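User: I'm putting together a small comparison set for a docking exercise, and I want a reference complex before I start. The sequence is below, and the ligand is iron/sulfur cluster. Could you produce the 3D structure with the ligand included, as structure tokens?
Assistant: Of course. I'll restate your input first, then give the structure tokens for the complex.
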Amino acid sequence: KAGTAVKPGETELARQLEYIRAIRAENDAFAAENGRKKKFYSLAMGCQMNAHDSEKLEGMLDEMGFDRTDEETEADFIIYNTCCVRENAEQKVYGKLGWLKHYKETKNPDAVIALCGCMMQQETVLQTLRQKYRHVDIVFGTFNLYKLPELVATRMESGETVYDIWQEQREVVEDLPAIRHFPYKASVNIMFGCNNFCSYCIVPYVRGRERSRTPEDILAEVRRLAADGVKEVMLLGQNVNSYGKNLETPVSFAELLRMVNEVEGIERIRFMTSHPKDLSDELIQAMADCDKVCKYLHLPVQSGSDEILRRMNRHYTKESYMELVRKARAAMPDITLSTDIIVGFPGETEEDFQETLDVIRKSRYSTAFTFIYSKRTGTPAATMENQVPEDVIKDRFDRMLNILNPIVHEVHEEQLGKVMTVFAEEASKQDKTVLTGRADNNMLVHFKGTEDLIGQMVPVKITENKTFYLIGERM
Ligand code: SAH
Ligand code: SF4
Ligand code: F3S
């Protein structure tokens, strides 16, 4: 049935584990001969989906007997998990490939370069790689990440560049080895792909149609994570509000949240992203009822203009969006909101832009991710008339930040004097005596503390406002 999660490809997993063993044997032999293990460098660009996918890639590389390094200049295996949501993400990859060519020529001719992720799902990118970047060794996309071991083995045997790009999901392989970036918090995919086709967005073309995992698979993973010490889970999907609609036994996202809320050991639940068109009263109620669900909602508005929203294919209006904000605040008075905004969508007028500013003023976001519209070939917006000139966009973008940042500052200022429970995540890179973590409402908090507090919920009194984060003292 279309849209239904395929049952775990257990035989496929077993095949890949065979490749992992074979590569490990070779890597161990290399280590014995050279007195050092081969090292991998892994970079995830783009969104949390990619970050989470890279955790799986890194888990597989670790099992293959590579050591992880943060120094790209000493790596034997380099893998970039790419993003193509905006043009600058792609330019970054080409820039790095130029550097890598030099690296292979001068420092490490045996280094293996692998590219994967969203950008690789585009035919034009593959052509460019084939023509201009022949020093790349392995190329694969978003649907066959689990095949990394097989692709590495094929590259080792053939000595030639391996291309393996699929146009759709054929098999879902669960239970891949993974290395979590944080010991105490984890991401969990609840669905893959996107069906919304917002007219500016390339994601549906490179991530395929929406597929939900079953609640059983999700809960089993969450329980395993809890048993492994994880306290906070982030449920991931491009539009979590349409979760479960196509499952054989349909389940709503609100119902899923309630189930995850019951998992013992899990103390906090976050999720992203919520599309305003599908945000139900049922979900707001579930958020309010579930003690572990953080009172924080990322609700991308994109634009405040009804006409732009219509041409973006977003299926809501400024008024219906503001109604959701009101409902969420009525049900959870302390909730914080964040959003995504695009400036300079084709045809955006000054009046349209003023509507966006109005939404910013009324919604009082604690954070906003703001983007300059980027033309993506193949999307409907790319061929729309009236593309907005660059200088007009830049000017609007600056004016938007001048409205937005004072609001962000004020929303943080309101927290002064409060005692918040902060989930201590890591020591600050600049100062090891300072810990950083997030409050329930997703605000970033820095406070003095020792590293043994990492992974704990710490009561912190907020003493200072730094606009984009807070400073506090341990109680
Ligand atoms: N599924 C999520 C967003 C994923 S992409 C959602 O619908 O909210 C993250 C953000 O990138 C989007 O919310 C949008 O603001 C931005 N974005 C996507 N395509 C873009 C483009 N072509 N130009 C500029 N920003 C874009
Ligand atoms: Fe892109 Fe829209 Fe899908 Fe989000 S919901 S990934 S913006 S198409
Ligand atoms: Fe994410 Fe970028 Fe792909 S935003 S889904 S990594 S195109």
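Residues 4 and 247 are 5 Å apart (CA to CA). Residues 85-86, 200-201, 203, 238-239, 273, 275, 300, 302, 340, 342, 371, 373-374, 376 surround S-adenosyl-L-homocysteine (ligand 1) (CB under 6 Å).
User: Thanks, that's exactly what I needed.
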